Amino acid sequence: SLGATLYFLLTGEVPFPAPRVADKVRLARAGPPPSPAARREAVPPGLDAVVRRMLSPSPADRHQTAAEAAKALL
Predict the structure, then answer these.
(1) Predicted model pTM
(2) Conformational region of residue 18, where left means phi above 0, alpha means psi within -120 to 50, and beta covers everything else
């Protein structure tokens, strides 16, 4: 959920726009959201990569601990 929150803060949009929760889950599992940098060019590439990793459809591809995510954000 941190990835979705960061995505919204960076773009002003939700990463998986859909009217129902089930639809949002389906979109999240189908593939990564659009790049935050594609929505707002002011988003630095490194931050874009961290957010995209946080929102990866595969849990194994996401940061495995809060410490790992925090380190990536530094």
Answers:
(1) 0.86
(2) beta
